[in-house]
Structure formats: structure tokens, C-alpha cells
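Reagents: none. Just compute today. Acyl-coenzyme A oxidase.
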Amino acid sequence: MEPSQTVEDKSQPSVATVTRRIQRLSLHLIPLPPLQCSPQLDMLTCAKANKQEVDVASLSSYMRGKHREIQEKIFYFFNSRPDLQTPTEISMKEHRELCLRQLLGLVREGKIKPFRYVVEDPAKYFAISEAVGSIDISLGIKFGVQYSLWGGSVLNLGTKKHRDKYFDGIDNLDYLGCFAMTELHHGSNVQGLQTVATFDPITDEFIIDTPNDGAIKWWIGNAAVHGKFSTVFARLVLPTHDSKGVSDMGVHAFIVPIRDLKTHQPLPGIEINDCGHKIGLNGVDNGALRFRSVRIPRDNLLNRFGDVTRDGKYTSSLPTINKRFAATLGELVGGRVGLAHSSVGILKIAVTIAVRYSLLRQQFGPPKQPEVSILDYQSQQHKLMPMLASTYAFHFATQYLVEKYSEMKKTHDEQLVGDVHALSAGLKSYVTSFTAKSLSTCREACGGHGYAAVNRFGTLRNDHDIFQTFEGDNTVLLQQVAADLLKQYKDKFQGGALSVTWNYLRESMNTYLSQPNPVTARWESEDHLRDPKFQLDAFRYRTSRLLQSVAARLQKHTKTLGSFGAWNRCLNHLLTLAESHIESVILAKFIEAVQNCPDASSQAALKLLCDLYALDRIWKDIGTYRNVDYVAPNKAKAINKLTQYLSFQVRNIAGEFIDAFDLPPYILRAPIAMQSEAYSQYTQLVGF
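Predicted 3D structure written out:
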């Protein structure tokens, strides 16, 4: 404002407001002629679309990054060892023993030693984990239990004395271990765990007890057969000299030996039972643990955030139970990062099989002409092309998550810890849910052949299904994202700093929540719809409206229902908000990846996928945009037509896109996905 200017009287409308009203009125009287879409939008066959040139090698190099070599080493090892390859038909007992042999072979013969990377280079660790999981998802989970959960808890929750004592044994698999957090009655609510660790000052020991059946540790990976140690989460109880007699210091982690290192028999006071056959992941020996007055040395308390002195006094640098609990769980967030990353790897396999089959399979066609590829049908493109685009989107989003997690492990920045916690919760939930649905869609897209076990969809679907539950139930995790968004929303109005992932909220409350521009709401040109700014603005506009509206609803209902009741009343709204925010993050990272791609042909190909991802998501939620006039009717039609056209274009180079994943034949293993000899290999399997 110039010094000579004065603030306008609030009763007088501003020039901008008057201009806006005139624009709105003029549109009612003289509607703008619809802008013409590209004539290519009217092409209804992919044969008429212009095929882009893609340098598959450059695109693959950009996708796979600097850890490609160690993944190739893992693939080569298993490809050279038929005795370690998982057959289609295998019993639970055989699968468990094979999984152990696979893990031992990888580490002791293949010379892959991942444990040091858990802290030193998380990106390399997750690259190894993705490759291992693509061999057999059961192997990937067993690998993760050993190194990320059992090993990670020792590294992240313990101190130097624990690392010195256990590192080598965990690294070389002499100390196979478990991660005993979940109980029969408590999974997501970790603060409600009932297992007790009572300090005995006379013997300088903790006594681990399972007070009731509901406190039995349940679904513990590696426990049923192979585990020798376990990180056990229990309530730390100290004796006191007051009327209460004891003091509950909250949930802590303890190292508890569960089997004799020589005889492999359960140690005294430890009862181990087998959780039995599961829907999937039967190569992982999940078990149940009950503790009956099991004594462990005081040094077995993983004491990074809280310790007990010889005379029974509790010490901690963190002042409250809640802060210690948050710090403990914050150090375990790597499990969620790994699951999101691995889920994308599984999605790549499924999409590759389904797309390659759809390119090879021919059915029907014009009269008296050859049959056409089933991927030429719009319905098949509608199933698979947005899924392919999403796979690329998730790849770059989880890469970003791994980078932020690695930075967090190096800096321990408090704000970054909170950002990674919410981002990992959101991406783990969103990506694993999407992959679970996509696995069924891929199976259906391959017809009857997709139902054959040898073509992998059944195993992939069953093994992956639990990704939606462990390391945090997806619905619970989305609520954590929503809660963090609401906190950021509140902090914004109190002048606080916003964490990096949430930065767009600073301007969104002003820019995105203003009345939609009636002119831009009607723009239909292809250039406009493919503009990253339009796409990202649309995603963020939706998130901002959802955030503002749910905040108002919560405030209203809290007055009559209380905070818990209000949250439950608005729960579906909150889940939609969280998903919308995560989609905004995914798109932002995809756009960045396109812009940063150094190869021109790869950049153009990625831009095509990014546009398809963005416009497909906008179209699927077009009702939201229409309800607030963010998108006019003709613009909505243009979005739909352009989305179909982009699917046609992606179909033309779908083979190049899946080839860029660079998955070796042994990883795919599905006869219907083989480029050559597809049906001869397939028929041999059934005896012809």
C-alpha cells in the first residue's frame, strides 16, 4: 500500500470484489464459448494416437537409482540357486524351513549384510528389502522381522552396551529374533499393553509376566520355530514405599531370550505356541508367547529413553510417560517406511504381469480381420493404465519418504521426526490399500489364466493382504494423519511454523478457499488441463476445503458429544481428508520427479503418466469439484475425454513402461507374462 493510500471502509466493497461480481453476472448473460479440445481427444482407438519414443534404459536408470547394483546381486544369487526358489506348491512347514534357508543363504553365501545399513544408509537397506521381498514376500517379511524390527529395536531403542553385545549375532543370523509388541487384546493401542516387567531390587532383575490371556503376545514373527531372542514390550513397574506399593512407568522394551542357544528349547517360564496356517505369508513362523515370572538382567532394558538404577530409581531425559512413549514409537517408524516401499515393489510385479499379458493376449476384433490385443479395449485400459501411472507415482513418493527418513536418522530434528511419522503413516496406509485392491483387479484383468497359482496373483494377493494391518492398521494410521493436519491447521492460525510436507496449507486457507474463479473453472484446453499448476491446485483445493469443513464440524460436535464423540461422528470425513492430503503429496513428488528427470524422452514419458495420474484422480472425485463450481460441466467432460486419450497414449508405450521396472524373468515367474514361448511354457506346466 502506498503511503498516500488509506484503508477502505469495510462497508464498501473492494475493487476486486466488484470486478468478481461483474464477471459472474456477465457469464450468466453472455456465456463464454467452450474452448476447443485437441481434435485428438475424439480419437477412440489407440492406433490413431501418436506413439512417443522412450529410452527404456535411461528411464530404468532414473527409476532404479544408485542401489541397482546390490539388487542385481540379490537377483543373480537366487537365480543361480534353484534349490532356494519357492515352488508354487509347498506346505507350511516346508515353506518355513525354505524361508530360513533363503535368508541364511543370502547372508552367509550371497554375502549380503544389510544390518549396518538400517542406521547408516536406510535407502540402501530398503532397496535390499524390496529386492528380497520380490523373491518371496514371506522371505521379505522374515528379513524385516530380523533386521528392521528385532535388530532395529536394539539399535534404535538400546544404547552402546546393547549394540556391542548383540550386533554381530543379529547381523550373521546367529541371534534370530522376534519383535513382541502385539497382544491378543491389544494391537493398535500400544499404550494399553498389559505384559508387565517388574523390577526386583534384591536380585537386580526384571520379572516379565503375562498377567492374563489377553496379554499373550500374538502374531509374533519368528517366534513359533526359529527365534532365539525377542524384544518384548511391557509396562515397566517399580516398587515404591508409598501406599500404592508400585509405580507404572509406561511401556518399555526389553531383550528377553526365549530359547536355549544350544538346545533351541524354550527357556524356563516361556511358553511358545504356533499361530498356525494363515491366509498368506506361511513362510513366516508366527507364534504366541506367554511369560511366567521370567527373570532377565536389568541391563536387558533397552534404555535409550528411560533407565533404572541399581537401587530401583527411574531416570529419563524425557519428563513424561507420553513423551517417552512417543519417542519410542518414533524410532520404530522405519517399519512403516519399509512396508510402503515394499508394497510398491509388489505392485510393480503385478502390473507388469497384467500389462504384459494384456499386450500378448488377443480376443475378438473387427469382422474378417485379425483379433486385437485385449489392451486395445477401452475397458482394459481403464483398469490398468491409471494403475500403471499410480505405480510410478507411488515409486517417487516412497523414494521421497525414504530420503526424509534417512535425513531424520542423521539429524534427529524434532520437526522432521513429526513430519516423517505422519507421512509414513499416510503413505503406508494409502499405498498398501491401493496395492491390495489392484492385485485383485490385475487378477481379473487376466481372466481365467490369472486364477492359475503359477501366474502369481493368488500368492501376491494373499501375502500382501496383511500389509494393510501390521505396522499400524490403515484406518488408524489415516486418523493419525488427519490429527496431524488438524494440529497444523490450528498452529497456522497461532503463527507457528509448518512442517515441510504441510507447507501448502499456509496459503491454502487464503488462496484455495476463496471462491472458485468462474473463468478458470471453464477453461478446457489440453494445455491448461495438463498444466501441473492446475492439477496440484485442484488436489490442494480439495484437501483445504475438507480440512476447513471437518475442523468446523469437530468444533460444533465437541460442544455436545465431547472430543471422542465428535471425532467418531466425523470419522469418515477425517479419513477422506487424510487420503486427499496424501494424494496431494504423491502428485507433488511425481511432478518434481518429472521436472528433475535429465533425459528428455524419459521426462516426456513420465509427464504423460503424471498427467494421467492427476486427471484420473480428479475425474474420480469430479462430484466434489462440481459441487463447489471449481469445475464447470464442459470442463468436467473435457477432463474425462483427456483422461481416456492419455490412457490410449500410455497403452501405446505400456511395454516400455513396464520394461523400465527391469524385473528379471525369475522375479516375474508367471508364464502369462513371458514375452516369448508364453503358451508353450504354460502348457508344459500342465503336462502337454
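Residues 103 and 143 are 7 Å apart (CA to CA).
Action item: order primers for follow-up constructs.
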